[in-house]
Amino acid sequence: MATSQKLTDHFLSCTICTEVFDKPCTLVCNHTFCRKCIVNYTKTRPEAIRAKSLLCPFCRKMTKVSAPERPMEEWADDVKPIFLIQGLLDSFGPGSKDTTNCTYCQEHGETTLAVACCSVCDDALCEKCTGAHNRIPSFRNHDVTDLSGEVKVKGKRKAMCKEHKQESLEFLCQDCKKAVCQKCCILYHRKCDAVVTITSQMVTMKTELTEMKKSLSNKEGETTLRVKEQKLQEQRERDHYSLMKSHIHSACQKVIDRAKKKERKLLDRMEDISHKHIGQLKADIKTGEMSAGDVEAVGDADLKEGGRIASFTFRQDTDKLIKALDDLELGEIEVLYESVLDLKATPVLQDTIDITVAGDRSKPMPSDVTVLVVNDTDTVVVTDWYNHSMKSFYVKNNQTQHSKLRLSGDPWSVTKLTHDQVAVTVPDTQQIVTVKVKPDLELLTTMRTSKQYWGITSLTPSTLAAGSHSALCVDILDMTGNVLRSISSRHKGNNILQYPNFLSTRTGNILVSDWGTKRVVCLTPEGDVVFSYSPTGDTALECPRGITSTDTGDILVTDYRQHRVIHLTESGQFVRNILTEEGGITCPVGVCVDPSGYMYVCLGTKGVVKVFTCLACLT
Higher model confidence: residue 339 or residue 41? Predict the structure, then answer.
């Protein structure tokens, strides 16, 4: 091997990157490294960063930097290599050798233009010597480049072993996952079980690389398309934001215009009265200059116009005005959150809400639950069967707060009507009440119904669906409680409804959890059966209670006696028991999923609502 090659391998190579020095710097300990390498190593050592010094990986000595206030990338810029290293690089380093003429020809006293260069031998070669060089068996695998265009000369080119420079990498140790030469196999891999030739693995490796390339290409295409769609979505949202902003300004401007109109009316009224009053005062001034008869005539004229003005003032009820402004509603901003519920993941308990509050006469029994987002505040609304009340729980100023609304009877099921209103069934008093959520609760209306309704769900903004035990039906109601349509319990001679305790809505259809028939039924508003889930065996329902559907169409049903929450597909096929007694579920009743993907389950006998996450990031 050439002398320059030996110098490069043993004395002019950085021990960190194992390459020839790139902008070398010599530390106070006389160890030399590439500037970039020593800076990157120092970045990993907190003690060196605190000391504002470059740390040697060999002897651990620190070299103080001259300007520590500069970025770390520049700490080694002022540290120069020792004279010997720089001199060797200048003489024998890359680019130091004259490659104009052939090295072999010069040794024989001839001057021949070089056309190639061998990086292993570190020699420039003319066309004739290049051919001779390539015919030598031990030189055939050397890296020979064409000097005219820095293109490799056609011929065999194999990767060479870094330790045994003359040996090519011909073997693959599958145990160590490393390409090795023959000497490495003898010295270091004698005990390895799977050492094969690289040639024997070429077809398999090529196939795997081709498949990997194809997969990466597909992913790149999908990513590019997704990024493009996201950019379009971003622009749509910006346009939507600008439109909403314009609507808010417009609504505010209408209020301002209305206020200015009232202002103008008051000012005009005041100006009329002021003009009349001042006119009367001017008439008084003239009384000393006019005859008694004339004065009486003026006075008579004033009285005929409505009497003499003594004074006038502007009265304003400031408190009333402020209250009116506080109650002024320019509009509401409704936020639709993207659900991130991943029903394939294992549910993780996130929180436990104890619904016991001051004034409760009995241990609470949460029968149903829903979640609303009111003024950007997540509000959990629960029906408490034993304490004849509705309760809301929310976080404000980093503290959990609650509200309680006592009702005339026992509330059972709750459904969301709008972003800040719910409807609740009160079976024992044959009522359906509507409640406003601020997030504190406020009773809005009370509907007297002809039947006792238990389960309830909102079909449209103006219609409800409610289930009755006594009449064994599901009725479609308007917002005054009138029955618009009644769906019979009989279907093809079978009784499909007996105790429709809980209802939910999915794409305009009605999901019914029926305790009496131990089934889940999906009905159209016209009464047609979409599917009926009533299996036997391990997946059979014993006491189905709460039911809800997710944004993806999946259905969740609680089983009170089997202490589980069941996951069904949109078409009513069993998937799995997503929550069981082992996961802390006992006697579950109502269930719901909030807009952020959290699952709420009422545990009736425990008096609590448990909150679970099934997020993809937790799988």
Answer: 41
The answer to which of 103-112, 252-261, 474-483, 581-590 has the lowest mean pLDDT is 103-112
Report the CATH fold assignment for 351-618.
Neuraminidase (2.120.10)
Nearest to 328 by CA among 432, 241, 223, 258: 258
State the fold for domain 3-96.
Herpes Virus-1 (3.30.40)
423-427 average pLDDT score: 97
Q: How confident is the model at residue 154 (pLDDT cuts 50, 70, 90)?
A: very low
- Cα–Cα distance measured from residue 101 to residue 245, given in angstroms and rounded to the nearest whole number: 76
Q: 380 pLDDT exceeds 80?
A: yes
Cα three-residue angle 405-390-560, rounded to 5 degrees: 165
- Domain segments of the chain: what residues? 3-96, 202-327, 351-618
Contacts (Cβ under 8 Å, ≥6 apart) of 433: 407, 411, 423, 424, 426, 443, 444, 445, 446, 447
Which residue is listed with tokens 């950007």? 376
| Position with higher pLDDT, 465 vs 96 | 465
Residues 6+ apart with CB under 8 A from 156: 140, 141
Give every CB contact of residue 116 below 8 A, 6+ residues apart in sequence.
124, 125, 127, 130, 144, 145, 146, 147, 153
Please report the DSSP string for 448-473 in residue order: E-SS-EEEEEEEETTEEEEEETTTTE
Find, among 61, 92, 89, 66, the residue nearest to 77 by Cα: 66
Strand 389-396 and strand 399-406: the pairing is antiparallel
Is the model's pLDDT at 493 over the cut of 70?
A: no
DSSP for 118-135 reads: ETTTTEEE-HHHHHHHHH
Residue 156 has pLDDT above 70, yes or no: no
Query: Residue 119 contacts by C-beta under 8 Å, 6 or more apart in sequence?
Result: 142, 143, 144, 145
Distance CA 86, CA 82 (A): 6
Q: How far is CA 472 from the centre of its chain?
A: 44
Tell me the pLDDT tens digit for each residue of 584-597: 999 999 999 998 88
- Window from 128-137, 309-318, 343-352, 535-544 with minimum mean pLDDT: 309-318
Do the beta carbons of residue 559 and residue 545 sit within 8 Å?
yes
Same topology, domains 3-96 and 351-618? Answer is: no
SS3 content of the chain, % helix, strand, coil (to 5): 30, 30, 40
Rounded Cα gap, residues 439 and 392, in angstroms:
7
**pLDDT score at 617:** 40
User: Please, which residues bridge with residue 394 across strands?
Assistant: 401
- Supply the DSSP string of 490-523, one letter for each residue: EETTEE--S-EEEEEEETTEEEEEETTTTEEEEE
- Given a contact cutoff of 8 angstroms between Cβ atoms, the answer to whether 456 and 465 are in contact is yes
